[in-house]
Amino acid sequence: MSNSVLWHGVYPALLTPFTQNEEIDFDMFKKNLKVQIEAGVSGVILAGTLGEASTLTAEEKFDLLKAALSTVPEGFPVILNIAEQATKVAVEIAVKAKELGATGLMLLPPMRYKAADEEVVAYFTTVASATDLPILIYNNPVDYGIKVTLDMFAELEKYPTIQAVKESTRDLTNVTRMINRFGDRFKILGGVDTISLETQLVGAVGSVAGLVDAFPAETVAIYKLAQVGRLEEALKIYRWFMPLLELDIHPKLVQYIKLAATAEGLSNEYVRAPRLTLVGEERERILKIIEDARATRPTLPDYKNL
């Protein structure tokens, strides 16, 4: 089994930039990826919610994986998200991801079916048994309708490939419950931008971030400062960041974060239908939040050497 993912630090849920005719813009994808690496992220996650997984074909996800692997330094973790309806298809993607060189997988519960607890556990464990890639379970009952409970994690505990959880329940006490029950068996990564610092302070060892797609240095700086106890400095950046972080918890988070990344030269605004690009008052309102933040950007300490 691979131990090449430490599950510590910041893991961007990367955007999938598109051209105007809805083809993947690989040049922009690689540009953003390189900036993330330069900022000091610990790995990247492809084809998640922010990556518009719901409108990508399996082949396109593999193309993104190949593009990322051809861009990152050797050994840099590249995680492919799996969000499928059928267990068989999820297994096929996991096997193919391993063949192509993925470092790990993020795994959502079954899509488009409100599975019972035992069905979700069976889905996860079937995929985990089919690959030796390390797996990050995405626990997001707010957006996906299924909560992975502590009792379900007790079933998953037996599978060594299931190593971490993206904690997106939005219930900070759940982090403490997980640690009280399982110790450090599951590495906990915060999954909600607006409580990312709080999640870290109660025991998360990293985060899967959204606004990092536009502001990687600030995201990593907050994590690193908090890690070494320089909380006052972390809080100052975090408070500046909060109006932007709130863009991550809206149904149009893809459009909002793409607009922010576009302002930073790291994406374009194009999305794939049924999503539509922002227009009119909404676009102007979101753009003002972005521009106000860019105009008051804090000076960062030398966070890479903390």
From TrEMBL:
PANTHER family: DIHYDRODIPICOLINATE SYNTHASE (PTHR12128). This is Dihydrodipicolinate synthetase. The active site is at Y138 (proton donor/acceptor), K166 (schiff-base intermediate with substrate). It holds the Pfam family DHDPS. Gene3D superfamilies: Aldolase class I. InterPro entries: Aldolase_TIM, DapA-like. Belongs to the DapA family. Pyruvate binds at V208. It comes from the Bacteria. GO terms for molecular function: 4-hydroxy-tetrahydrodipicolinate synthase activity. Keywords: Lyase.
